[in-house]
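Ops channel
N.P.: pipeline sanity check, posting one input/output pair.
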């Protein structure tokens, strides 16, 4: 740990904390950095870091994944999607194909890509085939997808858009009567694109201390210290601890690209339901590239968009329970055999906690800090 991080940790430990402070870190990247650095084992026991809804793979609508699987299996198309999405399971009987990876094993042509430019390349290399790009991600991923759209898409490239905006989920959570949070750490990369102003509603409407931060331990600890001081002083505000990347107004050019390519609609989040103004959909002038308009859609299924039986990923995403409190964590659901989407992606809280050494269910009474400290070999 850097000397700067150690200094922030000393400042946090010097604060007279009289009781628990529940701080939600919204971003999956933040959760990964927190766990990799072992911050929960170093912070005072009063500081409780709660992973939030910042994993686009975890909340991608189940019916969208099911639909693209059906296209891959039953139509002459090439399906491309980001790597993590290939392993996300859907709600089907065990005898049926439950993921894009399984569809590929069954003979469907499915490719994992790292960037939208790869989807364009595959379409150009296969001009006689229809290529379906399942576009999944939050603002930081949808902006480069919008940039590629702005450059002009090959005629044979269709998009199934499952992109989402981050702040509406946080707003929905904070508007609920049982949010149970004392402060929030907002996602730095999203604020880089959309601007820090997007997160002002947290302290203005909900009176919760808020900080935007980056992904290094020193930046995260600075943000934690900031919200703790705000809380103690009773003066909630928005602190930008990621000034090197987050500027007032954000990236105007990226915002323009998003506006030109997408409209924002009320959209489903897996296991959570419809969240107002939270989803990106292709604008009407791009309907020739909208897979939903061109390819046949399967009828709605029972349990569409739900989590698998026994899976508590939705409660994990909303910060209601810690990952190992899920009923199937470490038993049926493991990284090698994921049942829920939170165990798939490296931004999913369950996968992150597993990588941190928590391989069994824990009782809620034990507490996250104690469980992680035990796994790390601390007293």
């Amino acid at each position: 740990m850097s000397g700067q991080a150690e200094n922030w940790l000393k400042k946090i430990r010097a604060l007279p904390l009289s009781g628990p402070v529940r701080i939600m870190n919204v971003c999956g990247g933040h959760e990964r950095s927190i766990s990799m650095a072992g911050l929960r084992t170093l912070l005072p026991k009063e500081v409780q870091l709660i992973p939030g809804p910042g994993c686009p793979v975890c909340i991608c609508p189940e019916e969208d994944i099911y639909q693209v699987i059906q296209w891959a299996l039953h139509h002459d198309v090439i399906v491309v999607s980001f790597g993590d999405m290939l392993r996300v399971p859907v709600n089907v009987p065990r005898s049926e194909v439950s993921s894009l990876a399984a569809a590929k094993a069954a003979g469907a042509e499915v490719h994992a890509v790292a960037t939208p430019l790869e989807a364009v390349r595959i379409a150009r290399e296969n001009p006689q085939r229809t290529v379906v790009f399942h576009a999944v991600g939050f603002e930081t991923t949808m902006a480069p997808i919008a940039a590629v759209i702005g450059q002009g898409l090959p005629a044979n490239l269709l998009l199934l858009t499952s992109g989402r905006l981050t702040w509406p989920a946080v707003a929905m959570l904070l508007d609920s009567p049982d949010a149970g949070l004392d402060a929030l750490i907002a996602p730095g990369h999203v604020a880089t694109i959309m601007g820090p102003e997007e997160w002002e509603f947290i302290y203005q409407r909900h009176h919760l201390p808020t900080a935007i931060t980056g992904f290094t331990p020193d930046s995260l600890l600075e943000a934690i210290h900031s919200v703790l001081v705000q809380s103690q002083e009773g003066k909630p505000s928005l602190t930008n601890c990621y000034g090197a990347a987050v500027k007032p107004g954000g990236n105007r050019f990226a915002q323009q690209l998003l506006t030109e390519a997408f409209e924002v609609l009320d959209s489903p989040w897996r296991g959570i339901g419809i969240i107002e103004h939270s989803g990106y959909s292709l604008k009407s002038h791009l309907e020739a590239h909208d897979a939903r308009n061109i390819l046949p859609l399967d009828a709605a299924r029972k349990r569409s968009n739900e989590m698998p039986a026994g899976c508590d990923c939705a409660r994990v995403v909303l910060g209601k329970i810690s990952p190992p409190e899920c009923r199937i964590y470490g038993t049926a659901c493991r990284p090698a055999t994921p049942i829920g989407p939170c165990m798939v992606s490296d931004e999913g809280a369950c996968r992150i906690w597993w990588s941190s050494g928590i391989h069994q269910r824990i009782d809620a009474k034990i507490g996250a800090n104690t469980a992680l400290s035990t796994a790390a070999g601390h007293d």
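N.P.: looks fine end to end. The longest strand covers residues 273-282.
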